[in-house]
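Hi U.,

Before I forget, here's the chain from the pilot set. I'm dumping it here mostly so it's searchable later in email.
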Amino acid sequence: MIKFSKAAFLIAAIYLLGSCKKNEKPDYVSPQAIGQVTSRMTDVMIHDVTNPPLSARFFAYACLAGYEVVAQNDTAYKSMHGVLNEFPEIQKPSVEAYSYQLAAALAMIETAKKMQPSGALHQKFQDQLIDSCRHAGFSDEVIAGSQEYASAITMQILKYAKADRYNRISNFPRYEPEKEAGSWYPTPPGYFPPVEPFFKTIRAFTLDSSSQFRPAPPAAFSESKKSEFFRLMKMNYDDQKQPEHRVMAAFWDCNPFALENKGHLLVGMKKISPGAHWMGITAIACKQAQSDFSRTMLVTTSVAIGLMDGFMACWDEKYRSNRIRPETAIRKYIDPSWQPFLQTPPFPEYLSGHSVISSAAALILTHYLGDHFAYTDTVEEPFGLKPRKFKSFLAAAQESGMSRFYGGIHFMDAVVNGQKQGFQVGNWVLQTLGNKPEQSADELMAKAALEAQ
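Structure:
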């Protein structure tokens, strides 16, 4: 189980007291409660060692549960029915006394409790939230009504989630890595089996199919020193890992599968997924922008949808091209002693998942919160990493993508083409949600590179 110190629980309790308050609005819950829920979901994901695509799936459904409560109670926001693929008409429960903000937060928690393997770990946080509301003056009738409302919405969202075909993946034949030259093969130190090789088969939220934004193929594998592939290998091998590049690589590592060698033992290191990192950024940005509860719920849900569809598009290509990792290729064809700065994640190399989902999330955040939104990213502080300041979301996405090259785990074309796919997915998500298309992917890539300077 996740263990927190008494001090940590005290801090959380004090924070939650600010989530429920009575001022000019009756039975009001702070928008920061949304970020608190996604943060607790991240804690449970770390506990369960949840893989990146699956983490995005959990975030998306939990956020949709909260968002639909908002859409039923704030006329400025519309249901996702008729917008997302196969999304049903969510029936509004017949509850008289409730706080829709509290019901939204509880719907998120209840959905996470049901979907995450160790979802029961959310119960203590849920109890704290309810106690903080009771302490702030919420009546028992409003609290009970909010819980009833949340449960009714959660049941409908879970039914939608169950129909996305993820539960069929276990029936597929076990994926066996190919042994052809240039193909991906498990890497040290864990030699983990491939992660989610059939993720592309489930229902996307906005994409027509997981291959809708199929990228240009990767550089063809070749042992020739005159080939494009060998040139890419040499770029990784010759990279001198400047100190600042090492800092970037470590900050964006986000590898739930990382292991640390301690004598005769390999010990797992607690790290968040890349999607969880961007959900943390979303919470920071919405708080800084002073977004109200409903808008915070919209932005958070939109980012979660972008993460999910971004992973689907990326994973579709990963297991199509099935390209070898730099670690395997460089050791075999250049230097058997070479090691990447970061540990290599257990799935094929092309495209870079960080590049895809960071570009998609950054574009969505830019749309809602604006260009040149400067912020300080403190998401990795609990893991011993110093905060980093960014001039914009696009600058952060650019650094995130490049961090994979600096870490030695991706070739450069996987980074560049991953960024392009991410911007394509982000544009598509925004357009599906009723927004005007942003700039083209090529224009956005140039803009992100400029802002990162």
